[in-house]
Design a protein that fits this description.
Elements (H helix, E strand, L loop, with lengths): L3 E2 L18 H5 L3 E2 L4 E2 L6 E3 L6 E3 L7 H4 L2 E3 L6 H4 L3 E2 L25 H9 L10 E3 L6 H7 L5 E3 L16 H8 L4 E6 L4 E6 H8 L8 E7 L13 H6 L1 H5 L14 E5 L3 E6 L6 E16 L3 H11 L17 E5 L4 E4 L4 E17 L5 H13 L11 H21 L6 H20 L14 H17 L21 H31 L6 H15 L25 H5 L1 H4 L4 E6 L2 E7 L5 H14 L7 H10 L5 H12 L66 H15 L7
Parallel strand pairs: 8-9
Antiparallel strand pairs: 1-4, 2-3, 4-5, 6-7, 9-17, 10-11, 10-12, 12-13, 13-18, 14-18, 15-16, 15-17, 15-18, 19-20
Helix pairs in contact: 12-13, 12-14, 13-14, 16-22, 19-22
Family: Belongs to the JHDM1 histone demethylase family. JHDM1D subfamily.
GO molecular function: histone H3K27me2/H3K27me3 demethylase activity; histone H3K9 demethylase activity; zinc ion binding
Cofactor: Fe(2+)
Amino acid sequence: MHKWRKLGTVVKLPLESLGCQNDSKSMAAAPLYCVCRQPYDVSRFMIECDICKDWFHGSCVQVEEHHAVDIDVYHCPNCDVVHGPSLMKKRNNWHRHDYTEPDDGSKPVQAGTSVFIKELQNRTFPSAEEILIRMKGELVTTRYLERQGFNYPIAVTEMEGLGLKLPPSTFSVKDVEQYVGGNKVIDVIDVARQADSKMKLSEFIKYFTNPHRPKVLNLISLEFSDTKMAKLVEVPDVAQTLSWVENYWPDDSFFPKPFVQKYCLMGVKDSYTDFHIDFGGTSVWYHVLWGEKVFYLIKPTLTNLALYEAWSSSPNQSEVFFGDKVDKCYKCIVPQGTTLLIPTGWIHAVLTSQDCMAFGGNFLHNLNIGMQLRCYEMERRLKTPDLFKFPYFEAICWYVAKNLLEMLKELREDNCPPPTYLVDGVKALISALKTWLKREVNEPTSEVPDNIRPNHLIKELTKEIRYLEEEPVGGSKLVKSQGSGVPSGSNGCLSTRATVERLCQARRARRAARQLREQERHAPKLPTNLDILEQHTRDVLKRLEVGPLEEDPAFGAKVHAKFNKVSTASAAAAAESLEDNHIRLMLVNGRIIRWGSKVNQCAEPVKLAIQGMLSMAGLLCSSKSETADSLQESWWPSPLEQAQHQRRLQGDKSPIDSQGNSSSEAWDNQGLPSPEMDYQYCDPSMSPPLHPSKRHAPNPPPISNQATKGKRPKKGMATAKQRLGKILKLSRHNRVFV
């Protein structure tokens, strides 16, 4: 009989075939397999030829993993030429997972087989109307569940107000392949064997659309939050609002964020999932887009949970229909267009009565913390594989405990009694956290977040609970009201609800802020005025670097310069906005005495902003008249004389105005230069340094008044001063100034 391996499992290949020999040459050369002559890859399904004993990739020889179990003797493409095609197993029964067993009537029917499905469809069950709550979508709110509790399944047929967004009912399995990608590897269930296998989504879609289906395959674990299809689906508002992951999971967590809110389920007729509790005791929302599903629901009473645990650990589990072991198992038909909300811990099986596509998701919440913890501990006792457990369940419980401590403190400060479900949940959480801490002594794997002090957190939570029990807040005992999950008392309900809603709104605001920051992090960043000024200053100084005067006889000639767009990545994204944002600067001895911008629409705001930044940096003269007076009173030539002298050196005979500018260089009334404005440049040796009494202080002290005493400079002032000062301080060592 041939050997084959599943994806992700260890292959029992001979050591010599793996190159595990003492010979160094054999160790160096990896053995090659299959018709493709590739080395062993643990992620690919392989099958062994029973003739040549070589191993082949299933994708290379057209053998899918779920088909391999039906092959008795496998012949590879080379061997089947001589020995004929592979030999298939002979079916002897239709009621056992191993259909090769003899049908002697001695063994019972197993779940998932065709005989089982027929018997299940012929059974009679109590109607789910006894326990089902039918509601309009707009009435299914967080406030309703907090007041009435979330203890029974809810069916919603009128979707308006539920907040659930889905593709149209014409959305097909091929559309799923288009949005998710056909190469995605998925887990499918072979219903007749109740065993899982892996295959590509494209292969499953091909199977689903084929009218001839040799076996029943069911896809129930396609989580698509990381695909393009995620934008087509929005979970119900109540699931989003209550979700622990959405409310409490921090962005900087060491553990990866669990994604369990968006699943696509595609099942063909007669698909069946046996009785189970969703991982971690999560609550579930299901919506049937097209087709139909039948749920078999069992209450999570203590007795039923004990029976379920015993049944799950029994060796003949598949031979016993769990619905027969409890007092009542309810049948709930979910037709197309209906949404079903299943609370924590409900034991359920699902039958697909006709080809169906459904969407669903799981979420943990505060309403049934004790039941969630009980289900998780049951999973541990049953040694459930990590693949079928809620990701990092213990880690999220620590995060929740930290946030609930804050909530209890705020409620106490507001003199509001907390809801009873919250107090009971915190008590159960404290007990679980203590157990996990003790268990960590023997188990090396820890899910305690690094930023949490576990013992201190448990101690503080215990203190808050003790405070509530010894001195009830608001003078009212924590007593459950009829049909309510909040305490009775004077105005406890209203005040508590207001406080909890305020905290929830704060959490939602923080989450929205996180999302906004995430969007800003990936969005093109527009440059600030300070960024523009800094980059333009750097560009101009870089463009105007020239050699000494004696090496450049043409020095002093008119230079036509424009400031280019900022070349950084962020400025490139805002290139259009910077097109007309050219800033003109005139510097004398390293100080800006004149500046302007082409932008007329925002000239005044830009002017004021740049004046403020330059003034803070101590680089801008207070006014034109001040500058002129200070220059004329000093012992060196006036600016007019300097400009005339400079222009004589250049051979320029154009008239000079009273400010030392030629007629073609006149500034407009707004202090803005013309688009094609020319600039004069002078050597620092021609402009003697200012007399000490006329120099501007490099760091002028701030204006002293009562409003500013004892206050730190506003954020950004020091940055402007440092950035501009550093740039222009370096420019003083150059031989050319604007």
